[in-house]
Write a structure and sequence with these properties.
heterotetramer, A: 79 residues, alpha+beta, Ubiquitin-like (UB roll), five-stranded mixed sheet, 2 helices, B: 144 residues, five-stranded antiparallel sheet, 3 helices, Beta-grasp_dom_sf (chains A, D), MoaD/ThiS family protein (chains A, D), Mopterin_synth/thiamin_S_b (chains A, D), ThiS/MoaD-like (chains A, D)
């Protein structure tokens, strides 16, 4: 089980600042995105969302490792 | 440049921002042009009356992304220095959400670099804005 | 608009300019974007070391021309307010010669209007700059 | 005799803050410019110079009237 941190609208969708998913280690970020959409279909209603891995935007091909800091980044709105 | 973050001041702050502090960081005898952008909270958005805004940040990554933008602006536009300060927390109408200050030898790169920074900030920095109206609230930009 | 100079603050000043004063003139709850330009005295010009500068103005016409530019910027770029302050007299290296502050609903016209004002000011406002170096002085831009 | 005010490099050329020219009333600004260049050839060495009449840039065709405020505007350098 890995904890994934949620901000902004992602926190509303998850119902809290973290959600958890099973069996992520070794899978790709694309697979994480698919798992999220299956478990929380409301993510599919967003304009888009990105995944941050260890404080950097993660590409779809990256593999998730044990201990990674994973964060869902819904559309940003700074400034 | 020895230190890649030389002449770069990035801050994410829970308290009021200061234009003067940003200005004093970038001013330099070799520079003739200073350009500043200040983003403030508007009372109307898409025709609806806004009561206040809440800014939430994924702080460590927001600082990293703001620093990347400031360094890119300094290097690509040949700026001398960049200050980039952003607020978090609840902001009232008229309060300041972001201040950008840049200095350069001549004025054209100062304008271009300053505008580049605010444009990029709005695309990549993990900060979110919840808009409060009399009838409820919502996260901006989230839904189509 | 009833008064054609509404929300326009033009000043020609023999004493130090204030970014905060200009900022406070233009800020408004309807505006989300403030852009500022500050022109400061550089220690080097065309490779030569400058000791200080003297600004001379044909004051009544300089104020008229500065006002024309500020009003044109407000009207053409849809700005809310414009402050345009310019120094006269002897200025040391690092001192501020000019400050421009503009506010608008969105940021793009703020950047464009602010840059328009400094570009036009350098073309039409009757202000002259004498540059002092260790080996003498000359009026800038006068000779080919 | 009309007084013409001089700023910047024009003051250096005139040797003071004013110069005077005869018989300007009724003449055009272009004729004023020619008279200046005859009397003070150093104005011809400038990048350019304009004439202000009553605190506005004057076109070459304008006629000078008694009581006009005339000012020589060498290349400006504000900002």
């Amino acid at each position: 089980m890995m904890k994934i941190q949620c901000f902004g609208v992602a926190r509303d969708i998850a119902g809290g600042p973290y959600l958890t998913l099973d069996q992520l280690e070794g899978r790709s970020v694309a697979e994480l995105r698919q798992a999220l959409l299956r478990t929380y279909p409301a993510f599919g209603e967003l304009v888009s969302f990105a995944i941050a891995r260890n404080e950097e935007y993660a590409s779809d091909e990256e593999r998730i490792e044990a201990g990674d800091q994973l964060v869902i980044i819904p559309p940003v709105a700074g400034g | 440049m020895a230190d890649p973050n030389d002449h770069i001041d990035v801050q994410l702050s829970a308290t009021a921002l200061s234009l003067q502090v940003c200005r004093d960081f970038v001013v330099h005898p070799s520079c003739g042009g200073l350009c500043f952008f200040e983003g403030t909270i508007r009372d109307l958005n898409l025709g609806a009356t806004v009561t206040h805004l809440e800014f939430e940040a994924y702080a460590p990554m927001a600082v990293k992304e703001m620093t990347k933008i400031a360094v890119a602006a300094r290097n690509d536009f040949g700026l001398h220095a960049v200050a980039l300060h952003h607020r978090t927390g609840d902001l009232a109408i008229g309060e300041t959400a972001v201040i950008i200050a840049v200095s350069s030898v001549h004025r054209k790169p100062a304008f271009e670099g300053c505008e580049f920074i605010i444009d990029e900030l709005k695309k990549t920095v993990p900060i979110w804005k919840r808009e409060y109206r009399a009838d409820g609230s919502h996260w901006l930009n989230a839904h189509p």
